[in-house]
Amino acid sequence: MNKPLLVPLAALVITAAGMAPAVAVPQTAKAPAVTVTYAGTVSLSNCSGSVIRFAGSVDTDPALVMTNGHCLETGFPDPGEVITNQSSSRTFGLLNSSGSRIATLRANRVVYSTMTDTDVTIYRTTTTYASIKNSYGINALTVSASHPAAGTAIKVVSGYWKRTYSCNVDGFVYRLKEGDWTWKDSVRYTSACNTIGGTSGSPVIDTATGQVVAVNNTGNEDGARCTVNNPCEVAENGTVTVRKGINYAEETYNIPACFTTGNVLNLNAAGCTLPKP
């Protein structure tokens, strides 16, 4: 894992061919890339994260913060463990576009946390999106409800280090295994995203849309096979591949379907595929 800092790990021509005269082929204009900044990201005591919202969220909803499951303040969730509705008073440093800390947000609840199939923790804060916007001029990052695509240009934005990594989605991993944990359909980065400890929980942002498509969580540090800090890729046929120095993230497109009116978690909602307790 891109380990949380200060926490022990044990305990990423036309050819047309023809007789017609040649004509210029119209080019479809590509949408300009969104300017990705630190606005809306947060720093935790040992990890990174972001203030998130969904397409159905409204400004009066309690703001949510997303990071990794392995960044949970009470320790790594066990394989198969899903935590919901757990009390929390954790704080987050809210960053502006330049990476300056401009406020402290506080959680009152761990809404959801797991390291099974994915690696995510979502906190509910004591404030609303409207309050954050009105007080600090910061908008939450929207979580995309669409599966990311290979080749997509992305940025991994670390609030802990105030550092941004730029690369592309290299592909997807059927199963990513690290120690006792296994994650499904993980994002593999191209090599330029050489994330490090403390970047855990960083939002992975599609530069074409500005939306969050994954949450950064791990990388193979030493070339070892399927051990902590050295995840391995397991194909559907069981073939194991080790990619030393390559880093990974967990997709987030399946999260919005699990939240209903008022940013309330409903794991039984239609289309919700997150693991249940």
Structural features, described:
By secondary structure, the protein is an all-beta fold. It folds into 2 domains: 41-142, Thrombin, subunit H, CATH 2.40.10; 153-251, Beta Barrel (Thrombin, subunit H), CATH 2.40.10.10. The chain is built from 1 helix and 18 strands. It has one helix spanning 129-136, and strands at 41-43, 48-53, 62-67, 82-87, 91-95, 101-114, 120-128, 141-142, 153-158, 163-178, 181-189, 203-206, 212-219, 232-234, 240-241, 247-251, 259-260, 264-265. The strands form 3 sheets. It has a 6-stranded antiparallel β-barrel. Mean pLDDT is 92; it is low at 7-29.
In total, the number of strands is 18
Task: Output the CATH class name of the largest domain.
Answer: Mainly Beta
Radius of gyration: 19 Å
How many helices?
Answer: 1
Order of helices and strands: EEEEEEEHEEEEEEEEEEE
State the end-to-end CA separation: 23 Å
Q: Which regions have little confidence, pLDDT < 50, spanning 5+ residues?
A: 7-29
DSSP strand (E) fraction? Answer: 35-45%
How many structural domains?
2
**Derived structural class:** mainly beta
- Looking at the structure, the CATH topology of the largest domain is Thrombin, subunit H
- Sheet with most strands: 6 strands, antiparallel, barrel
Features of the shown structure:
39% strand; Thrombin, subunit H; six-stranded antiparallel beta barrel; 277 residues; six-stranded antiparallel barrel; mainly beta; 1 helix
